[in-house]
Design a protein that fits this description.
It is built from two helices and no strands. It is mainly α and 93 residues long. The chain has one domain. The longest helix is centred in the middle third of the chain and has 13 residues. The model has no long low-confidence stretch (mean pLDDT 78).
């Protein structure tokens, strides 16, 4: 919101910033593909599939996806959604 046209509007209504988010984008088409040849770190492996994730990976994905919600929310009333495989293969609930 900072620096956008929404900022003066929100401030004028009495809102105030309580959380900042940085969005990062990797333009895959522009990436240096030679750097993709790196071996995975010890203890890790690369997986590749098409369509839905293999069942053997779904639980660990849901755990990892839920773990990224550790950013401080300060005094925001925002709440993170939990990921659970029991509600549809890692769908946010």
């Amino acid at each position: 919101m900072a620096g956008s046209p929404a900022e003066p509007w929100a401030l004028g209504l009495g809102f105030r910033p309580v959380r900042s988010i940085v969005i990062q984008v990797l333009a895959v088409a522009d990436a240096d593909r030679t750097s993709w040849e790196a071996a995975p770190a010890p203890g890790y492996r690369l997986e590749r599939w098409r369509d839905t994730a293999p069942e053997r990976l779904v639980d660990s994905y849901a755990t990892a996806r839920g773990a990224i919600h550790d950013a401080p929310l300060e005094d925001s009333e925002f709440g993170n959604r939990r990921f659970q495989t029991s509600t549809g293969r890692g769908t946010p609930t």
